[in-house]
Every structure is written in structure tokens, then in C-alpha cells.
Amino acid sequence: QAGLETDILGKDIRHFMELESTNDYAKTIAKDTTEGTVVVAEVQKKGRGRRGFDWVSPHGGVWISIVLKPSIVSADASRLTLVGGLAVVDSLKSIGLTPSLKWPNDVLVNGKKICGILTEMEAEIDRVEYIVLGMGINLNFNTEMLPEEIRDGSTTISDELGTYVDRLEFVRSLLYNLEQYYVHFKTQPFEELMERWIDSSDTIGRKVRIVTPSKMVDGRAIGISPSGGLLLQKNNGSTEEILSGRCIYI
Ligand code: BTN
């Protein structure tokens, strides 16, 4: 189907011309669908970003959500965000770009955001029932399509390359790479993927400000914790694990 080279991902593909949000749709079918179901829309009317922000999703982009059912505890769910980032990085490299990962969920090219990842889950007690891994990749459209507030900090693949990219081919590559990393994730210790993530990241080693709903803390990003959090060396010398939050380079 769709010429995919995958065994798990994309056995069931739900394609829409328009959806409010692929993550929202995926969550409504997740319980009753097989692992690897892919939801993809040409346009999202109410695409969602992290922290309740809108995610502007015009024609030409890749707005995609994947239902995963790994046997993990909910505390480890954010590892999947890192896994998704690794797959996007490989697909971007294969079309000649030089991407970097910004903790927790951004993929940047030339310091500008080209992809955002929104991982959502449902858990029973603390076992994950399903994860919806939502990825928004700015592919074939001009940055001008984006609202002014985010235009300067964002970019698109076609703007970076100066040409359009075959969208189906890109999605095939993304699902292929994601499957490789996902199988690795399920069968091998997470440390290797963590190291890989750090290798592709421009966050580690930087001075950052972390903003959470309850606090703001400055320090140096020194690593990734086993559950996918950021290890922050604070200005007073102590180290803190940040499980989620907004990361600003300072
Ligand atoms: C972020 O950087 O804030 C995360 C953006 C995630 C956007 C994707 S697009 C496909 C999926 N459906 C959504 O509504 N959001 C995610």
C-alpha cells in the first residue's frame, strides 16, 4: 500500500483532504485500531502545537499522526518524541538538509523550526495504552503562509532547498526511518538512541532558559535523562532533570 517499505507503520492509512487535527482524529480511533495506523491530512483546520498553541497547517505540509502501542510506563512516553525527531532528522538529511534537534520536540534547519512533534498518550494506571505521535513538517510551502509572529523563527523544506520535494516520497522515507528507530526503541536499551539524539542536537552544551507553567530556570543543558528529560546544570552548580517545558536558547 502506497509503496511503503514498512512492516508495522502504515498498514492502515487514513488519508483526509482536511481534518481539524490529525492527532485529535488519531486519538478517537486509537483504542480500536492496530499499532502503526497512520492518519494524514492535506490541511488541518485546527492543528495543535504544544502548550495549547495553534499549529498552522496549510497545503503542502506533512501533517501526520501515528498510533503506537509500545509496552512502556507513562513516564517514558516522552522518549517517543525523541524517537520521532531522529526519524525526521534522517529524512531531512536524505534530501540534502542539515537539521538539528532542539529539546524537546523541535527540528531546526539553519536555526529555524522546520518540524514540531506533539506526543500524546492514554495510560491505564501507569501503563501506556496508546501513544499518538504527531508530526508537523513544513514541506512544500512558502514561509509567507505562516502567521507573522512565527515567520522569522520558522522555515520550510522548499524554502531551504529552493525547490519542491515529492511529498509521498518524503512520507515513505519518514515512515521507514521511524519504523527502524521504533523497532530499536522496543528491542534495545534506550541509551543508544539517546546518544544518537544528542549527536544530532544543538541543545546540549548550550545555555538555556527553561520555562514551565510553575517556574523559570536558567542553566546549561548537559544531557538527556533516561526518561527523555533534559538534564540542566543550574547556575548554582546542581543538576536538575526537566521533564517538560519550553526551552529558550540564551
Ligand atoms: C509543536 O511544535 O508545538 C508541535 C506541533 C505538532 C504539529 C503536528 S501536525 C500533525 C499533528 N496534529 C496536530 O494537531 N498537531 C500535530
Automatic annotation (TrEMBL):
BP GO annotations: regulation of DNA-templated transcription
GO molecular function, one term: biotin--[biotin carboxyl-carrier protein] ligase activity
GO CC list: cytoplasm
Keyword check for Nucleotide-binding: yes
Keyword terms of this UniProt record: ATP-binding, Ligase, Nucleotide-binding
Boundaries of every BPL/LPL catalytic domain copy: 8-186
Protein name (database record): Biotin/acetyl-CoA-carboxylase ligase
Organism: Methanohalophilus mahii (strain ATCC 35705 / DSM 5219 / SLP)
Lineage, opening ranks: Archaea, Methanobacteriati, Methanobacteriota, Stenosarchaea group, Methanomicrobia
Span of the entire protein shown here: 73 to 322 of 322
